Structure formats: C-alpha cells, structure tokens
UniProtKB/TrEMBL annotation:
Keywords annotated in UniProt: Hydrolase, Metalloprotease, Protease
Stretches assigned to the Metalloprotease TldD/E central domain: 124-230
Taxonomy, superkingdom: Bacteria
Entries under InterPro entries matching the protein: Metalloprtase-TldD/E_C, Metalloprtase-TldD/E_cen_dom, Metalloprtase-TldD/E_N, PmbA, TldD/PmbA_N, TldD/PmbA_sf
Protein's recorded name: Metalloprotease PmbA
Domain Metalloprotease TldD/E C-terminal: 237-449
Pfam families: PmbA_TldD_1st, PmbA_TldD_2nd, PmbA_TldD_3rd
GO terms of biological process kind: proteolysis
GO CC aspect terms: cytosol
Originating species: Massilia psychrophila
Length: 450
C-alpha cells in the first residue's frame, strides 16, 4: 500500500495521537483514547447513459475520549492543529467533569489489547479517473439494456471508490491503525411497462478492484433478475416451506448477531436473552467468526477499542458458544469483551449436512414445493419477542422447479422458531458485507396473501 494516496502517513497519525494523549495527561485525565482518520473517495452515477451525479470527497476527523476516574467525556474535531487538538481535549475533559460515575466505563484491560497488529492487507487504492468510473457505470447499465427489449428503464448504474486509513491509541499503551478500501459497482434495471413494471438490482463490492465482477456481468444478471419478476401473481394465505435466497439469508445471520450483541443483552431487549450454551439452531448449524482473513471486508486485527480479535466458533452444533461484546457491554453482563466493539467480523454460517449437490438448484429440489424469497420489504422484526413479519416477493416452486413470480405477500413467523426450523443451507455461498452464507431453507412459515 502506498501512503501517497493520503495527506498524512500512518506514522504522522500516530504522532498526532500521541500528542492528544499527552494533552489529556496534562489536563488531568486519568485515562484517554483517541481515534484519527482520513480518507478520500469518488462516486459517480449514470442513468440511461447520461451522467447524473459526480461526487468527490476528502475527509478527516479526530475523536477524543477522556476519563476522570469512571466519568467519561467525548469530543471531536476535523482540525489537526495543536491548538484545535488541545481545545478538543479540553472539551472532552469538561464534559467528563459533569457526567455521572459509571461503574462499567473505562478502557479495556491492557492484557487484552493488540500490541503487535498483523498486516491483513486491507487497502487496495483504485486510481481510477472520473471518466473511467463513468464509463464503467455506463457499461453496466448498457449491458442490462442489451439483455432484452423488455428492459425499458433504469434507476441507474453507479461506481463508488473509497480508500481511508486511521490510527487508534489509548493511555494504556495501545497504538495501531491501518489503511483500508472498499469499491462498489451496481446497477438497477427496470423491466416492463406501466403498472406491470418490475425492478431489481445487483452489485459487486470488494476491497481490491481487480477482483470486482465485470460491469457486463453485473448488468446482465441484474437485468435477468428484473425480467424474471414480470407477470408476478399473488398467493392465497398458506403455510409452506420458505427458501431465503443467499443475499437475504445473510440478513437472517445479521438478525442473530443483533440479538446476541451486548447492548441488546444487558438491556434485556432481545429474544435470545441468556442463550449462551443453549441450542438456538439445529445441531447441523455452525457459525464461525474469522477476523484474520487477508484482504476480506470483515477482517480486522483489533476492534474499535484496540482489543485483539480472535477466530472463534460463535455457534457449534447449534449451540451458542459466545456473544458479540464490547468492553462496556461485557462489564454490564459480568463477562469479558469478545473483541467486537464496532460489530462482528467475517462470519460464516454453514451446515454440516450440506452436500455437493446442494447448490441453488439442489436447494429448490430439496424444498420441493414452497416459496423462494428474493426480496424483503419493511423492518418487521421485533427483537424483544422475536416476532417476524416482512413484506416479500419471490417465486412459487413446485416439484423443485420455479413456476412463476409472486408479489404482494407477507411472510411471518418467530425468529426463535425460524432458527430451529432451518432444514438446510446451500453451498451457493454469497458474501454480503462481512457475512457469508448460502441460501437457507426454513421448514415452514406463514404466507399471508390475498
């Protein structure tokens, strides 16, 4: 990675962080932490072959936390001058003076901090010009239009390029940071005319642009998805098996993460309260967290508090082995941080019963008769009770073969039951953000239709 894409080097950011911690000590703080970052990016969008937006961003920021015993204050600035940094420390200190003591506040214990972070090679700057980015977006959208004359419109094609770096440091000896990147190409075509129009989209998002799917492949697949939804029908109300397509299956994994995260647990606002050591899934389900994969979107050698991350089995043979905890939430629960301040890392949800034949077509055959869900609408998950109700569209399946598209339905159940009723996970694995899973087959759910 060449630091020349940034104004400051990593060493310069580390020196700024050290200066801030020194200011905090001078002020009288008993502990302090600082996060400093800067980045740059480019976003372009086109619609029907014409440029809609071009945005370029350069940003930087600094966040300071000062502790006075177990009182905590935070302040931030985008000015890296010594005077501004001192003023920010002063502001954080003064806020801390007037806050109440919190028995769980404070930095992570020194022995948990990652003092020798490994290089996971997370930054691949994409030196692409605005003209080149526009051309890629046009190629993706053009490929969608070329698939079929029934692709009549488009919500556009877009390219987003971002590269940033940061340094975190605290008064217990931790100082670490690294550069990272994320680049995305997407397109959203519309098929049909009038009241019978259907839209869909597809995207590719990676750290290294050389691993990005071609704009033609993205455009064609997005168009095929939109075309497949034409002439959708309604269903009457029924109970049947439901197959969540892989991109949506990642959302089910995300729901598990949210329900077993520290904030929800110590507030007692989750349907998976006290689930540690409990069989939340069938025995064939495994969930692995691996933060140390080179070049992956969800990789990190340490969390937002500087705590070292670890590879671990979050769920083994259906049994919950660990939560997702920060230092604060762990203390509230009388436990130890899991290195998840800021969220989960690379998660892999698999089934020990998955076979080579369990590709997407194989999963349809395994379901036999039921609903394939390809889109969800609304935010119908109650994390306190686990009740789940989402607007949906997809395809009706008979004898393992897609028969016709369906729309204007609602799927409903309870997340506890849904997790227990996972029949199979396909090997059609897809990564969305930091979550990887194949399509997920639920034994049955209620379909509310006409």
């Amino acid at each position: 990675m060449n630091d020349s894409v940034f104004i400051h080097t990593q060493d310069q950011l580390k020196q700024l962080a050290a200066d801030v911690l020194a200011f905090a000590r001078e002020k009288g703080g008993t502990d302090a932490a600082v996060d400093i970052s800067e980045g740059s990016g480019l976003s372009v969008s086109v619609r029907r072959g014409k440029i809609e937006t071009i945005e370029q961003n350069k940003d930087k920021g600094m966040g300071v936390t000062v502790y006075i015993g177990q009182k905590r204050g935070n302040a931030s600035t985008s000015d890296f001058s010594p005077a501004a940094m001192r003023a920010t420390v002063d502001a954080a200190y003064n806020i801390a003076r007037f806050t109440a003591d919190d028995d769980c506040a404070g930095l992570a214990e020194a022995e948990l901090l990652e003092m020798a972070p490994r290089d996971l090679r997370l930054c691949y700057p994409w030196r692409i010009s605005t003209e080149e980015a526009v051309e890629l977006a046009k190629r993706a959208e053009g490929a969608a239009f070329d698939v079929d004359a029934r692709i009549t419109n488009s919500e556009g094609g877009s390219v987003h390029v971002q590269q940033s770096h940061f340094v975190s440091a605290n008064s217990r000896g931790f100082s670490g940071g690294y550069p990272f990147s994320r680049h995305t190409l997407s397109v959203a075509p519309i098929a049909g005319k009038g009241a019978k129009m259907q839209r869909d989209d597809w995207y590719t998002s990676v750290r290294d642009a050389s691993k990005m799917a071609s704009p033609e492949a993205v455009g064609r697949y997005a168009a095929e998805r939109a075309l497949a939804r034409l002439n959708a029908r309604k269903l009457d109300t029924r109970t049947c098996p439901v197959l969540f397509e892989a991109p949506l299956a990642a959302g089910l994994l995300g729901a598990f993460v949210q329900a077993t995260s520290g904030g929800a647990l110590y507030r007692k606002s989750t349907f998976l309260l006290d689930s540690l050591g409990q069989s939340v899934f069938p025995k064939h389900i495994q969930i692995l967290e691996d933060p140390h994969l080179v070049g992956e979107v969800g990789s990190a050698p340490f969390d937002e508090e500087g705590v070292r991350t670890v590879r671990r089995n979050v769920v083994k043979d259906g049994v919950v082995q660990g939560y997702f905890l920060s230092t604060y939430s762990a203390r509230k629960l009388g436990m130890q941080t899991t290195g998840n301040a800021g969220g989960s890392h690379n998660l892999f949800m698999t089934s020990s019963s998955t076979k080579r034949a369990d590709d997407f077509a194989g999963m349809l055959r395994k379901m036999g008769r039921g609903l394939l869900v390809t889109e969800l609408m609304g935010q119908g998950t109650n994390y306190v009770t686990g009740d789940y109700s989402r607007g949906a569209s997809g395809f009706w399946v008979e004898n393992g073969v897609i028969q016709y598209p369906v729309e204007e339905i609602t799927i409903a159940g309870n997340m506890k039951d849904m997790f227990q009723k996972i029949v199979a996970i396909g090997n059609d694995t897809l990564t969305r953000g930091n979550k990887s899973t194949g399509s997920i087959l639920i034994e049955n759910m209620v379909i509310a239709g006409s």
